[in-house]
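Let's study a protein:

===
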Amino acid sequence: MNSIRKLWFDRAGWFWTDAIKYLKIILIGYAYLPLILLISIAYLYHYMLKAVPPGWDFGWILAPLITLAVTRSPVRTFIKKPDPLFLFPMEHRLTDYFRLSLLYSALVQGFALFFIFLVLSPLYYAKISPSSGDFYQTFVLLLGVKWGNIWASWNEYRLPQNAQALHVVGRSGLNFLICLYLFHIPLIPGSLLLGLGVVWVLYYYAGIWKRTRLSWPNLVQGEEESLARFYTFAQWFMDVPNYTVRMKKRTLWVEFIQRIPLLPKKGHFYLYSRSLLRYRDVSSHYFRLTVFGGVCLYVMPSSWLWATAVFLFSLASNAIQIMNTWSRLKFSFWDRIHPFPADSRKKGFQRVLFLFLFLQSALMSVVLAKNGILWLSSYLLFGFIVSYVVSYPIMGRKIDKTLNT
């Protein structure tokens, strides 16, 4: 094995040694989560099969989900920050290294696509085709599309950031049309889609590969984003030393926060609000779960049991995510250069936590107003109680414990 191939295998081994350690803890400590997930999926399938009118094409549901899975095709290179300095001069010798990265990405993401398609298989068999042959034939075709997207994604590393975004939008559109065709909704003839795919992969992206060089900053950024996604997932369950906080401007929301009067007693409330909005993992997770909870509550039948379960799940997930940020925020250097009151940190964080949770519960309660004013008022009160209990008694004890140690 030459030194270049050994370098790739060493780096992949280092990552998986670390990743398996976290995955073991998650699987052992949270073994009940797969069971909850399976029960939720089974109920969702049962409801969708009953609620959707007969004759309605389920491809309109499956196609967007598969399109997301196919379009998102990052290439894991295991490149590190110092590599542009040390490996760039020998880029012409790294063919085997990058070939292994492409092969690794194709295999791992191919297995992930199969798992996603397997989870969606009950809908496919019930509403699209009962034939196992059609199911596996469709998966093989989707796998080919997935590998084409990995090749395209690899060549997009050679482009500027704004051009990459435009190419991703273009790939998404073509992938969506292909998925619709495979799920028996042929908006465009198959021969035309095949021609577009061949031109797209073999001509356009091959031309990019020949005309341009690799952008090492893009490679480093892409690998850092892949690592950040894994460690963000692990951070939901435990403190991760390798976790790197990713920031986002959130200009509109930050301008709203800046309207808070800058008084000493509100100093930490301002700082923590601004920090949580700019933490990319926390704010994105918060917005996604709020939307997910609202959509589920809107489409589900008028059942107090299921509405409460979805309401609590969405609220508790965001509560855990926000509460875990205290371990980062409590060491802010602002505490050492500004004369804040002694209990300002505790009260500031509790107020921010309560605000975020109650705002989420209020938005989801508004969705439930479709079932009547009683639902709206009941879940507003329920959300207020849950938000208060989590923010003050529970979070208060956690803060006191950390500040006294």
